[in-house]
């Protein structure tokens, strides 16, 4: 029990330090506060597991997860390539790219705008649990079926955000383009696409998390003997929870990195937008 008390004391001290650091808004505290908070949670987690003697089949300690992670880097890398690079990334690029291109043509057609978007909202509401087995049967058990599921998941969020962004221009801006006798595609390139960029990137950031979730969940419904979803399902069956948490850690790091890359590209491209002001 003493180790549990020690963990609680360390967590409370870290909490007080974070409260003090949060009063000083600078670059150092922006990095220090989340690092200290996360480290204190890991210490508290370790102490709770050790102090209460929780079985590893229920909740492994961070030290056990770290040891399993270090011993399983070859397996984790194979699963990362299969799920993230092949399934999630390929589906993300195809789905988001198709959504933006199709949005350019929908914007010009009132018929498609009124007819396709309601269908898109309907398809976006379909549960992945129901779609995954069907797409696995259509495209096979390898990464192609996972990419197809990711395409379905990311396509309509990006499409809807892009369409909303095309409406972000005001009447005066459109009238000015009309005064200069600018055709549709030049107006789209010079006015509407720049105005839509913040909306497009919002859709891309939402899709970055959906892509990874979709690829992992899809692997529960059939995959070769590799992949994060496959490894999680089989490891749960053998009560190897340390490996399950290692896969979760890889997924969290990949998702955070994926989102961060999109946010960094957004900052570089839409530096002029008010939402990016003050972000150095």
Write the layout of secondary structure elements.
Layout lengths: L1 H21 L4 H26 L9 H10 L1 H34 L3 H15 L3 H12 L3 H24 L4 H9 L4 H35 L9 H10 L3 H29 L11
Helix pairs in contact: 1-2, 3-11, 4-7, 4-9, 4-11, 5-7, 6-7, 7-9, 9-11, 10-11
Structural features, described:
- The protein is an all-alpha fold and 280 residues long.
- It has 2 domains: 2-54; 68-276, MetI-like fold (Orthogonal Bundle), CATH 1.10.3720.
- The chain is built from 11 helices and no strands.
- It has helices at residues 2-22, 27-52, 62-71, 73-106, 110-124, 128-139, 143-166, 171-179, 184-218, 228-237, 241-269.
Q: Strand share of the residues?
A: under 5%
Oligomer: single chain
CATH class group of the largest domain: Mainly Alpha
Predict the CATH topology of the largest domain.
MetI-like fold
Q: Could you tell me how far the N terminus lies from the C terminus, measured between alpha carbons in angstroms?
A: 46 Å
What's a quick, concise take on this entry?
With 280 residues, the chain is mainly alpha-helical.
């Amino acid at each position: 029990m003493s180790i549990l008390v020690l963990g609680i004391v360390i967590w409370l001290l870290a909490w007080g330090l974070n409260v003090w650091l949060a009063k000083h808004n600078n670059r150092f505290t922006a990095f220090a506060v989340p690092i200290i908070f996360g480290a204190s949670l890991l210490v508290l987690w370790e102490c709770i597991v050790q102090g209460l003697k929780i079985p590893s089949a229920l909740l492994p300690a961070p030290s056990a997860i770290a040891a399993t992670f270090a011993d399983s880097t070859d397996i984790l890398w194979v699963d990362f390539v299969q799920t993230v690079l092949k399934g999630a990334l390929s589906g993300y690029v195809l789905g988001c790219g198709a959504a933006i291109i199709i949005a350019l043509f929908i914007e010009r057609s009132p018929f498609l705008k009124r007819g396709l978007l309601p269908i898109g909202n309907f398809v976006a509401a379909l549960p992945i649990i129901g779609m995954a087995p069907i797409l696995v049967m259509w495209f096979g058990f390898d990464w192609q079926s996972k990419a197809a599921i990711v395409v379905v998941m990311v396509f309509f969020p990006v499409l809807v955000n892009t369409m909303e962004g095309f409406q972000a221009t005001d009447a005066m801006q459109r009238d000015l383009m009309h005064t200069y006798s600018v055709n549709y595609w030049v107006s789209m390139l010079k006015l509407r696409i720049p105005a839509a960029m913040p909306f497009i990137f919002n859709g891309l950031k939402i899709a970055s998390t959906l892509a990874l979730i979709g690829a992992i969940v899809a692997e529960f419904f059939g995959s070769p003997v590799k992949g994060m979803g496959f490894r999680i399902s089989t490891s749960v069956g053998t009560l190897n929870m340390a490996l399950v948490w290692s896969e979760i850690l890889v997924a969290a790091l990949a998702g955070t990195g994926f989102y961060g890359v999109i946010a960094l590209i957004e900052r570089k491209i839409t530096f002029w937008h008010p939402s990016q002001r003050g972000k150095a």
